[in-house]
Structure formats: structure tokens, C-alpha cells
Amino acid sequence: MTPSLKLVRRGLRDTTEILANELARALPGTDTPAWSELEWRLAMAAAAAHGISPSLCRFTTWQRPAWRRFLVEQRGHVEQRHQRIADLLRRIDAGARASGLPLMALKGAALHALGLYAAGDRPMADIDLLVDDTHADATADLLVSLGYEASFTQWKHRVFKPRDASPVMALGEHCDTPVNIELHTRIHERLPVATVDITAQVRTADATPGIHPYPSPGALMSHLLLHAAGNICGRSLRFIHLNDIALLATRMTPADWLPLWAGETPWWALPPLRLVARYYRGAVPASVLGSLERDCPPLLRAFTRYQTLSSLSCSNLWLNALPGLEWSRSPREAVRYLRNRLRPTQESVQERKDMLRTQAWLQDQPWVTLGHRRRLLTWLTRPVPRMDTLYVVRKALEHGAPLPG
Asked: Is 127 in contact with 93 (CB distance < 8 Å)?
């Protein structure tokens, strides 16, 4: 480790935790942190990476002009982008009605529709749609008619991007960033190799054409928790995920939680809810946590007891060689996971190629183009920083006036 990476690592961890607690408490008037210029830049990086700049703009009263300008700019970009997304959703809804296609708008769009967020509060990287297998190709044709083209296909979804769109290389949110659409036929996650599928719990029974909401708050909560679980397993959690869950949880009655147990035992729901309870005190009913503790495997239950946001997200600067191993529920799953890490499947190789082709922040990075054996050897001999983290840190250091030194 060079001294500069030591500073970045510690600064990211510390600023992330302070920002998380500031937003979770939502108590205006807390003292402005006595951070160095580097720490303020790292706080910008953390806020952008975790999708919380717009919400912090509403709640924090820290008196630092450069910090305030950054938050106000971010909220403005998110609000403008939200209008584009809302207009696009209306066009998709009209096209679906005309074509006889039942769709569901997932996650961020659903949270906005419930009024949990106002325009500008929550960034949305893309639009997620759930469609039945029988309507998937027709929905793809609809998206093409709206100016989209297929970008790539993974096991979770098909991704469509606007034709002739160019990425915007900026810190955090930008109003001109293209709005991609992810088309899902299943709601499922690999944790870490076994697939958890909750499609039956989430899909609405209403088959009329157009965009529909989730059938219940519990169905939406199930999806948010499974999505967060997948991100925790892959060390890519964002604080906005926890904020989503906390906001919805405070509106739910005891009966609203029951759909979480409508399918197989939700053993995977404890880690994200424990994190929510750690930052948002009183948001999660103790009875729900108690039931999930009985469902959760002992190893995973022990692992997540003391974990923090910064240890399970990109705020942890170093890549983890075996992310998610503790989620294995049997020796067989663990062996399968290790085998896949040592010798990636063809599907994993293709996913990596798609990422390198479509994610601008990964391009021109020597680490990501190394062969798998070289990367494994490097992991074993020295710490390797995350490319996504380095990208946002570099953008934060370039933001505004040059950083002294």
C-alpha cells in the first residue's frame, strides 16, 4: 500500500459511515465535520457512489460552500433526469396498452409511484421492467420502436440502450446520462451460486395491458431485500438500497410483512434488514428480525452481525478475492463457488466481456484486461483496489478547484 492509498482507504471508510448516519438520522443542525480537503473530496465520492447526494441535499445543513454546491448540482441533475424517466415510462405504458402487453415497473420507479420519493430525491440508473416470458419478445420490439436497441443479455435480464447514446463521464449523476432499460422475466439472485427466485411472490395477478404496480407492499419489500442481498453478497451494496428499505418499512403493518414468507424460507433477508436496523433505529420490527434470525444459516448470521455499510460496498477500497463465500449454505455450494472462482464459466466470461464493452469507467484500465490467472496471482500477492471505486475517487479529486498537493 502506498501512503496515498492508505489515506483514500481510511477516508472513504470514515466519510461513508458519517454520511450514512447523517442521512439515517435526518437531524438538521449537526456540526460540520472538521475534514481535510481530501476527506471532503472523498465524501463527495462516497455520496455519489451510494446514490445519496440528492437526499443529503435535503437533510444536511453542513456549512461548506463547495460541499453544498455539489449536493445542489447533484439534486438538479437527478430532478431533470427523473422527468426524462417519467416521460419514458408514460410512453412505454401507452405502447404496452396499445400492444396488449402487461408490464411491471420495478424498484425505483415503484418507490416513486408510492410517493416515498419526490422528483430529485433518488437517482435511477435505469428502468427495470418485469414481463412474462410469453411477452418478452413483443416488449423488446416495443422498446426498439421507442428508439432503443439491444445492448447485451445476461442471466438476470436483457439490457437495452438508446440508439446513438454516448456515456457521460462525470462525478455522480448527470441529466444527460442515457437511460437504459433492463427487461426481466424473472426476479432472482445468485447467492452466491444457488439461485433464489421470488417471481411468483412479486408478479402481479393483473394481466391487463400497461404498467402495473407491485401487488402489495410486502411484494415490493421482498424484491428490495433480495436485490440488496445480492449486492451484499457481491460487496456492491449502496446506501440508497438501505434507505429504500427503511422508507418502505416505516409504512408497513405487521400483516404487510407476511408475503416475505409466501414462498421458500427467506433466509437471505436477514443481512440487509440487520444493516437497515443498524442505521435506522426502529425502522424494522423486532419480531421480523427475530423470525429471520431463525431462518438464516448460522455462518451467514454470524458474519453479518457486525458488518457495516463501508465493509460491504465499494467504500471498501480493496477487491475481495472470495466475495460471498459466507453465503454458501452447504459444503457442496462452497466447493462449487470456489471452482467457479478458479475456473470461470463461459457465462461469467461473457458477462465480463459485456461489462468491458459497455461500462466506460472500465475501459483503459490494465487490471480488467488481464487474464484470469494473472488476476488470481495478483490477488494472492498484494491488495488490489476496485476499479469502480478508483473511478469515482478520481472524478471527485478532479471536481471543482484542483486539490492542493
From this structure: no
